[in-house]
Amino acid sequence: MKMFPKTLMLLGSGELGKEVAIAAQRLGCRIIACDRYSNAPAMQTADISEVLDMTNSMALKEVIRKHKPDAVIPEIEALAVDALAEIENEGITVIPTARATEITMNRDKIRNLASNQLGLQTANFAYASSRSELKEVSRPLGFPLLVKPVMSSSGKGQSLVKTAQDLDKAWVIAMEESRGTSQQVIIEEFIKFDLEITLLTIRQKDGSTLFCPPIGHEQTDGDYQTSWQPAELREDQLIQAKSMAKLVTEALGGVGIFGVEFFITKDKVVFSELSPRPHDTGLVTIISQNLNEFELHLRAILGIPIPEITIESPSASRVILAQEKLSDVAYTGVESSLEKKGTKVLLFGKPNCKKGRRMGVSLAKGKSIEEARKKADQSASCITVTKK
Description:
Blueprint lengths: L6 E5 L3 H12 L3 E6 L12 E4 L5 H11 L3 E4 L6 H9 L3 E2 L3 H7 L2 H11 L7 E4 L2 H11 L3 E5 L9 E3 L5 H11 L7 E5 L5 E9 L5 E3 L3 E6 L2 E7 L5 H18 L3 E9 L4 E7 L9 H4 L4 H10 L12 E7 L7 E4 L1 H4 L5 E5 L10 E8 L3 H13 L2 E4 L1
Helix pairs in contact: 1-10, 2-3, 3-4
């Protein structure tokens, strides 16, 4: 018989961490929210908050040992993974594991695992640690191609490079937006895909794997703008994606939800990336599924049964972006955004913003994906981020 409450520590307290905190508290858990700045979204609902540089190994170990949580749940990539490995050796659970966190925070390590070790279909790729090396390794891949920092999040630092003359600019952007100390980039051939999906994959404590219906999404500069569920795939494509997702998540180990991204072409399912946590495109599950991705994550972590995962209705999301830099934000148009039935708005509670920062999301359901997407787009367009 399991005993509650459990104490869970979030490393990263953004909008996804906030939803994890809410889902955990509904199961009677106590939440400690950590981030590099105060009043981050998850801190606004947590029992305790801690502000620290989570790339500082000593500071991270100190705060974990101070609170002695039942589990540490990384919600961002920029972490001192050596500290997580040490903490795990002391008997504190890291979700999914310290090793999985370390592999997936670096694009080179997860790509090497997927392509070189597991033999999954990926885009052709190469690495570079200088501008000159970038130019050299790009030639065989051809143009257009993608240049990304090996360590970043939400598409930050990614460039679509159409000609060799754009490589210098791409290098600068990658270095400016890279997280951590890495000076390396990954260069990928550009895949002309029909659809890009996230397959939310849940590993449970008994070793079994569950899947949510696939989520289609669109990105701009590597950052998600809209998502919808269910995405339309052929049955053979879905079977292949599930097989690949299970293979890579089993290789990583641990428990919880993984956001596994794929490119779908006419004749291929191509592995793209993986996050060992709830995925931003999966925010749509708050309105689409009987159990959203955050509830599924917590159930897997805590060993609570997941009897079924069902779609309630075709649904979609559209992000709400800031149009300028602001230090004390407010919102207008919320009432207009919620005029139509079957809509929801999540405003994340971020205390400040710069142009292009994701500040919220509109969610909508409809009789079809087309209707749901149109409603989500209309709802998001009503809201303006402004100064209080």
